[in-house]
Amino acid sequence: MVLNIKKNRVSIYLFLITLIILTNYLLYNLESMQPLSTSAVLGSIFDFLIVLPIITYFLIIRKKYSLKYMGLVFLAGYGLAYLIIPNHHLESYSFLPYIIAVSEGALALLELYLIYTVVKILPKLLKNFKNIDQKNSYFLLNLRKCLEEYFPNKRMVYVLLSDVSMFYYSLFSWKRKIRISSGQTFTYHKKTSVLAVYIMIIHATVLESVGLHYLLHEWNGIIAFILLLFNIYAVLFSFAEIQAIRLTPFLLTEKMLYLQVGITSSMEITLNQIKEFKHYDGPEKLSRTDQKNTHDARVIDFIQEKPMFEIILKDKEKVHLIFGITREVDRIIFNVDDSQTFYRALQNKLELNT
Questions:
Q1: I want to staple 353 with a disulfide (CB 3.0 to 4.6 A). Which of 71, 151, 155, 271 is the partner?
Q2: Could you tell me which of 217, 151, 198 has the C-alpha nearest to residue 300?
Q3: What is the rounded CA–CA span in Å between residue 202 and residue 146?
Q4: What is the pLDDT of residues 316-339, one digit of tens each?
Q5: How far is Cα 351 from Cα 353, in angstroms, rounded to an integer?
Q6: For 127-148, what is each residue's pLDDT tens digit?
Q7: What is the distance between the alpha carbons of residues 252 and 223, in angstroms, rounded to a whole number?
């Protein structure tokens, strides 16, 4: 029973959300339910601002996504309350927008605390980072190594790592070039349309920000400001992905294979842990069972090509995803631009490590 719930948590979540929305909509639109008492209105507010975030956290966010997403959940709950509950009922509860502002502020304070924690040991951290960074220009991987030394097992610090990497790549990396002291690099984006995808996302986000901010500002200035911040974050994230993809090709050394895909995923594979390396001959779309144990190290594309290569590991290894999320896999599928050179190079390194 527990296993079935885990497999179908998204379906259960959608059912519960639909139930909350539908019952509250009927409550205010069926004549037989009128007139409504104050307790009924409070019950609806409780559904949207308390129940909805709780079930979202336990069924979707917990152990998988950053707590920062709870800000969006509260915002969505408030938006649903505004759309479904008639205005004359909400007029008595003018404090609701401030609840949203406080929840967003609490998340911001949490991140400020994390920044303070890092700043306390910043001199040591910077010295260690500079020593590592001299070997290569892989900012995200180098910074993670420093944090792992000073903050082992502190997941929220790695949430901060995502933001630091995003600001670095989006704002401070435009004059940077790839720097590698040893090993071979292999690009993985030049034969795809991933850069065009992110440029399109940036254009759409900017246009949406201008129009939506104007409309929402007429309704609620606080909500308009919060959404504007999220849109700015989305634009910076897209710029960071463009730069990180360009500046972090796959790196093959004598002992390791580094697979960093933008700022969204990275994996360090010890070559003697590779059980099998071959051309991919599986289906274009992985089954749900295969997805659990497989890391897809391809960039997004308008038309996703079939993977070129497949690596089978002897044991499960950790994949670092965005916002401190990690998962363990024993299989990796990916593409590279120069497939023949990469295949020969990795085969040669594997023979030397056997």
A1: 271
A2: 198
A3: 32
A4: 999 988 877 788 999 999 999 999
A5: 5
A6: 777 777 777 778 888 888 887 7
A7: 47
